[in-house]
Amino acid sequence: MIPFIATLALVAEQPSFTPGEIWLDKNQVHINAHGGGVIKQGKRYYWFGEHKIEGPGGNSAQVGVHCYSSANLCEWKDEGIALKVSEDPASDIVKGCVIERPKVVYNKKTKSFVMWFHLELRSQGYKAARVGVATSKRITGPYSFTRSFRPDDSESRDMTVFQDDDGKAYLFHSSEGNATMHISLLSDDYLSTSGKFVRVFEGRYMEAPAVFKLAGKYYLIASGCTGWAPNAARSAVADSIFGPWTELGNPWQGPVEQTEISYDTQSTFALPIKHKGKDTIIFMADRWRPKNPIDGRYIWLPIEFINGKPILKWRDKWTLDKIQ
Ligand code: GAL
């Protein structure tokens, strides 16, 4: 028989996710990586996100993109600021600009890490509607800013980058006044778009795209378009990345007063992992705190499937071992 104290130690060892709670890093500081994305390199995961500060102005980029690393996805080490804002007023990423939803992909051909993000130029609100690109040879940075532009000459606000298993990568971005999403194939070096793109979910005002592939199908979870305020999430599936995409409705299950605001969350990324031989997708979302952005919370939950549809169910606490 295992003594009581040893049993407690075993239980305590299993790290758990507690969606919506303060998430402390290894320095006991609430993680500051909002609108983020995660990539795996070797045995570690790297989480990149917007570094926010206190107070109503805390959503603008005063610092840059923060990076954390972890072996088990629950306990995160602060790796510092991967992309710093510039002090140079002539720079597109001068302090006070808006940097949102950073996503990092690794380009095998150039052996570089490439970071894409939504960029708004300082003092221009959300008018610029550009993407920014930065690169680094080391995953944790420092990343060097390359340039900002409108992909395929189109507006680009909420976005994500999806890397397919054939090495091709795609930018999903809200365009045309956020009404229509564009899916743009990136160039082979991932530094620009290739010119090949499709318009999807025309007039549907989809934001906050999170994309994943499972058993040969492509899935998207996104939000509607209500700024920092939560709304009912959407989901969609396609056999080919360029579509046609079929909408599958709100993936959230639960009481309507929660599902219509997606449990006060907005999607940011879908992270594929293999845990004990089983493919699982972790849904990553933000619970924004626009009055005090640094206090924004993270909601990570396993995506379940019912009749081929991705489903999200609230859990106060869960571990990778006990998803089902
Ligand atoms: C949200 C978007 C966020 C941020 C915010 C600004 O809809 O998802 O990334 O841009 O609007 O109001």
Short description:
The protein is mainly beta and 324 residues long. It is 4% helix and 45% strand.
Low-confidence stretches: none
Mean pLDDT: 95
Helical segment count: 2
Helix content bin: under 10%
Overview of this protein structure:
The chain is mainly beta and 324 residues long. The protein has helices at residues 4-13, 256-259; strands at 34-41, 44-50, 64-70, 77-84, 98-107, 112-120, 130-136, 144-149, 159-163, 169-175, 180-186, 193-200, 207-214, 217-223, 234-238, 246-247, 252-253, 266-275, 278-287, 297-302, 304-306, 309-313. It has a four-stranded antiparallel β-sheet with strand order 1-2-3-4, with no helix packed on it. The structure holds beta-D-galactopyranose. Beta-D-galactopyranose binds next to strand 5 and strand 13.
Give the SSE map.
Layout: H1 4-13, E1 34-41, E2 44-50, E3 64-70, E4 77-84, E5 98-107, E6 112-120, E7 130-136, E8 144-149, E9 159-163, E10 169-175, E11 180-186, E12 193-200, E13 207-214, E14 217-223, E15 234-238, E16 246-247, E17 252-253, H2 256-259, E18 266-275, E19 278-287, E20 297-302, E21 304-306, E22 309-313
The site of beta-D-galactopyranose has 9 residues, from strand 5 and strand 13.
Q: Main attributes?
A:
single chain; 324 residues; mainly beta; 4-stranded antiparallel sheet; 2 helices; 45% strand; binds beta-D-galactopyranose
